[in-house]
Each structure stands twice: as structure tokens, then as C-alpha cells.
Amino acid sequence: EEVFRFVLEMNECDDKNEYRCHQGQCIPKSLFEDDHLNPDCLDRSDEVAIQTNKNFCHQDPSFRCEEQSCRVGQGEFSCGDGQCINEFERCKNGRHLAYFESVVKMSEIPIPYQKCLEVMLFLTKALGFYQDLCDTEVLPEFNGMLNDVLRQICPKTVQLPQLPLLFGHVRLIYTNSQPYFDPSRV
Fold it and tell me: What residue spans define the domains of the chain?
């Protein structure tokens, strides 16, 4: 599906007879807003009403859910079963946790560096669903000394996430030389 995504975005629709979905797919205009429960665009952009009721898909193994994709440009994350979530939400099937595991890859990281990444995930709010875990398991042990913790347990530069973020080669690198609680940077 992702391999041919750019082909969808590059094709031209017949403005007279076709509706162009947000991801580039063309559908007949007669199918635009014709059945809010069964969108024809893979990204559901032809049925506005369904955008507000997308969380039923985790329990509905029908075409309208299984073959739909989330609207990435709007910050949606695909749970893999048709459910789309926004930042700070959780997949009902737990896929957000699998994503977290793949981003952090804790098993391949030395233990002191794992704590550094946990604090960095909290501070950057990189994974909103990780916030609860940090609030209960990570932060109490540091008791408000995040600057000191970062300097003590983190190397001078930290790559987060561990995998390239864009285009297979763009990475985010953080430095721990700047204080976290800097009132001049509000």
C-alpha cells in the first residue's frame, strides 16, 4: 500500500466526474457523501460524518474498517485495524505499545541509557501515550531533578527516536547542554 502511495497522490482526477480524495485517490462524484457508514476513499475523506465516529473499527472486521487508512497529514496514527487515533490516545488493540517498543528498542540499549531515553520521551512528549507510564514509574524516582538526571545519565547527544524519522535518513539529535527549566525560553 505505501509503495504506491505517491502514485495515488500524483494521478489526476477528472474534475467534472470525479472527486479527489485527500490522499489522491479518484472516486466517481456520485459516491461523494453517499453513505457515511461506508466511505469510498481509503482515507475516508469523502464521508465527513464518519470522521467523528472512527473508533468503532477495532470491533468491526468489515471492508469499511479493514481497508481504510488514517489521514497521516492530520496527525492520525493507524492502529492497523481501521481505528485511527490522535496524539495522547491509545489503540484499543494495543498497537500504540508495539509502536513504542519499535521506536525505543529498549532491549538493544544499555540500561543507564534506557533511563535517559525514558526521561527524554517524557520531556519531549514524543509519545503521548507514554506519559502515563512516565508519570507513575519514571518521574517519581527523580523527584523534580530532571536537569541533573539528564546530565548524569545521558550522553552529551541523544538520538530520539532510535530509528530515522523521515525519508530513511533524517534523525533527531538532542543535546543535554541546555537546561530544561529555562524561563527565558517560554
Answer: 2-93, 98-185
- The pTM of the full predicted model, rounded to 2 decimals, is 0.47
| Dihedral sign from CA coordinates of 175, 163, 117, 75 | positive
Give the C-alpha separation, 94 to 25, whole Å. 29
Mean pLDDT over 117-140 rounds to 59
Average pLDDT value over all residues in the chain: 70
For 29-72, how does the pLDDT look when each residue is reduced to its tens digit (9 = 90+)?
999 999 877 888 888 888 876 554 456 677 777 776 777 777 66
| CA-to-CA dists, residue 23 to 13, 16, 19, 178, 181, angstroms | 12, 19, 11, 40, 40
Answer whether the bond into residue 39 is a cis peptide, omega within 30°: no
Q: State the architecture of 2-93 in CATH terms.
A: Irregular (4.10)
Give exposure, 18-45, as e/b (b: 16+ Cβ within 10 Å). Answer: bbbbbbbbbbebebbeeeeeebbbbbbb
| Contact between residue 38 and residue 51 where contact means Cβ atoms under 8 Å apart | no
The strand ranges marked E within the chain are 18-20, 26-28, 77-78, 84-85, 157-159, 173-175
Q: What gap in Å lies between CA 48 and CA 19, rounded to an integer?
A: 14
